[in-house]
Automatic annotation (TrEMBL):
It comes from Reticulomyxa filosa. Transmembrane segments: none annotated. It comes from the Eukaryota. PROSITE patterns: VWFA. Residues 69-213 form the VWFA domain. This is VWFA domain-containing protein.
């Protein structure tokens, strides 16, 4: 299809495989005539301008990356009955599948009680991930309330002992009674290095709480 002057950017993409950093440059030289032409009977003044485009291609091999320590908090309270809990479980499984072998993880399923796959971090190898998925499938949502203080405190305590990059991933509809106090506590502990991620489930999700402000 021929190019037309529609004001759109022209995008060119291609794949390159190399073990080294490669740099290529395309240079264009133009001769432009200056506006001060023959002002006193002299010849035209010409100035040289150049434009250049540089391509830098990174190597295929990635540099060493840091391992992550991820503590999953799964809400199984009464408000999660039905499709919300199914969506939450799928999200948790997806999170487990995205872990790398250098990572570690722990899981807490909570309502007014806490159930732990492991109360310590375990390696994110194939065997542990399969075991974690099997463990999660044993449970469904209960009729209890959403008591989230203890799971968060436990996760923070466990992650503070790890040398890996710490993350808490909270999967919930956010239907908690003391949301303001919980947000204040999380903000108070915000000086820690733990990254707090939230995933809202359901159309009636409590977005204020999930912002963790």
């Amino acid at each position: 299809e021929p190019l037309s002057s529609t004001g759109r950017d022209f995008e060119l993409s291609y794949s390159v495989k190399t073990d080294d950093i490669m740099v290529h440059a395309i240079m264009k030289k133009d001769d432009e005539t200056s506006s001060d032409s023959k002002s006193s009977g002299g010849s035209e003044n010409k100035s040289e301008s150049r434009s250049m485009c540089v391509f830098v291609t990174p190597p295929v091999n990635l540099a060493a990356t840091f391992g992550r320590a991820v503590f999953f908090l799964l809400d199984r309270s009464g408000s999660m009955v039905g499709e919300p809990f199914q969506e939450a479980t799928r999200a948790l499984f997806r999170g487990l599948d995205r872990l790398r072998e250098r990572d570690q993880f722990a899981i807490c399923a909570f309502d007014h009680r806490q159930l732990y796959f492991k109360e310590v971090l375990v390696d994110a190898n194939k065997e542990n991930i399969i075991a974690a998925k099997s463990w999660i499938q044993q449970f469904g949502p209960e009729r209890g309330g959403t008591v989230i203080d203890n799971p968060i405190e436990k996760a923070l305590a466990v992650l503070e002992e790890s040398s890996l990059l710490p993350f808490i991933l909270l999967i919930t509809d956010g239907a908690v009674a003391n949301e303001k106090e919980i947000c204040q506590e999380i903000e108070r502990r915000g000086a820690t290095r733990t990254r707090f991620l939230t995933l809202g489930i359901g159309r009636y999700c409590n977005w204020f709480f999930l912002k963790v402000k």
